[in-house]
Specification:
Layout (H helix, E strand, L loop, with lengths): L1 H29 L5 H40 L5 E5 L5 E2 L3 H8 L3 E16 L2 E10 L3 H4 L6 E4 L10 E4 L1 H7 L9 E6 L14 E8 L1 E3 L4 H4 L2 E5 H8 L5 E2 L1 E6 L5 H12 L3 E5 H4 L1 H26 L1 H12 L1 H9 L4 H37 L19 H25 L14
Parallel strand pairs: 4-10, 6-8
Antiparallel strand pairs: 1-12, 1-13, 2-11, 3-4, 3-7, 3-12, 5-9, 6-10, 7-8
Length: 429
């Protein structure tokens, strides 16, 4: 019983000591010092931390803006989920497992895909490209109509097969929507041997007409892809009616992608890969995140250098407050309590700078979102820097600044010895 009471009293004393140390540190921070230089240096330290914090908030928000912008571009072309075989190139969808997937309530649209490389020829120009044959639900599954650069999205008009190339392919070949001349597509025959005497007979050839041109504003699509109907792709590459190279799904509204992804994986088994939008462009988004966090680390290093001003401020404050230190010792204050006072003092400087910097950063982000002050220039996807503030990034910045402030304050408090103030009789007049 006595031990419990002693522990309780000790805990209360510790809490009281922390509150007292924080109170004294707050008074030291906002009160006028005997030497005005200490106020100036403290203000400079807080301002330096604030500017570094503002830079972190703004830069991370700009990276979030680019990430959101690129995801929006890919979402116009990429499906919610893309399913492909783990080993091999094609697979058969006429199985009980696939019938279950088609009937799932989570699935709104089910698109069959054939994707292969082929040779394009238009008039006297030719180039290799990726032919993507899609079924009729592709237009409903994606936002392809929103990214049409010229013409309209149409793969079959009832009489002729149509093609929709990317803007880069169209530029290289000199294509335009509704041109009279056909676009020829060549692919090697899969089911026959090469004819050395007549090599041209070793290729399947299909002529089609361009109905429109899309622009995702991403080179991997615009410069390489041509969309055709899945019937044309199966005829060109000699695939059976139930054979596909991938399945693309659009999920129903209010369905969580992660839950639907897990359910489909369990249904199909380990022979298939089910990828969400992020995983479909995993390498690209990983590079973007690496750039973001490398920039974060560089700015943290700059912020750490700015935090060194706290060392100067605390060192001068310790010298200025020697009389107060001696008074506290005479009243029974321990060395640990005195060190806590100055540690809290340095931490408060960092906190004030962090709050100031966060507010300045959020203000600049808000101005950029509404007025677009910083321009990217011509020839870019957008005219101004995109900005998207993320709460977790702001919280990370705040914790980072507080940690650096603690480290910067800990050095002078820990390693600068606090000497006793001279007694009055020893003071030289």
């Amino acid at each position: 019983m006595e031990t419990a009471n002693q522990n309780k009293v000790k805990a209360n004393n510790t809490a009281g000591g922390l509150r007292f140390a924080l109170w004294v540190a707050r008074r030291y921070l906002f009160s006028r010092k005997s030497h005005n230089a200490i106020n100036v240096i403290s203000g400079i330290a807080a301002l330096g931390v604030g500017i570094g914090t503002m830079a972190l908030v703004c830069v991370l928000s700009v990276f979030n803006g680019f990430d959101s912008l690129i995801q929006g571009m890919f979402s116009a072309f990429d499906p919610d989920l893309r399913i492909s075989v783990s080993q091999g190139k094609t697979f058969d969808i006429d199985t009980p497992e696939w019938n279950k997937v088609k009937k799932m309530n989570d699935v709104a649209f089910f698109t069959e895909v054939i994707e292969e490389n082929a040779l394009l020829r238009f008039r006297d120009k030719q180039m290799p490209a990726t032919i993507k044959g899609v079924s009729s639900d592709f237009q409903k599954m994606t936002k392809i109509d929103s990214i049409m650069f010229d013409g309209k999205f149409l793969l079959y008009d009832g009489a002729f097969q149509r093609a929709v190339p990317g803007v880069g392919v169209a530029s290289i070949l000199g294509l335009g929507a509704n041109f009279i001349d056909p676009l020829f597509i060549y692919a090697p025959k899969r089911t026959s041997h090469i004819n050395l005497l007549r090599p041209e007979n070793s290729f399947n050839q299909i002529g089609t007409f361009v109905s429109g041109i899309f622009s995702v504003k991403q080179l991997q699509y615009d410069d390489h892809y041509v969309l055709v109907s899945i019937d044309l792709a199966r005829d060109l590459f000699e695939y059976q009616p139930n054979t596909v190279s991938a399945i693309e799904l659009k999920l129903a509204e209010n369905i969580k992608v992660s839950e639907a992804q897990k359910k489909i994986k369990n249904t199909l088994g380990s022979n298939f890969e089910v990828k969400n939008r992020y995983e479909q462009q995993e390498d690209f988004f990983k590079i973007l995140k690496i750039e973001k966090w490398i920039t974060y680390l560089i700015l943290c290093f700059i912020l750490l250098i700015a935090s060194f001003n706290i060392i100067s401020s605390l060192s001068m404050l310790i010298i200025d407050k020697k009389q107060d230190i001696q008074t506290l010792r005479n009243l029974g204050a321990e060395q640990q309590l005195i060190r806590r006072i100055f540690l809290f003092e340095g931490w408060l400087i960092s906190f004030v700078g962090a709050v100031l910097g966060i507010f300045m950063g959020l203000f600049l982000c808000l101005v950029q979102q509404h007025f677009g002050i910083l321009k990217l220039g011509t020839g870019y996807v957008v005219d101004v820097y995109p900005v998207l503030v993320n709460f977790w990034d702001v919280l990370l910045v705040l914790l980072t600044v507080l940690l650096m402030g603690f480290l910067a304050a800990y050095y002078p408090v820990r390693y600068i010895e606090i000497h006793d103030a001279p007694s009055p009789e020893n003071v030289e007049l």
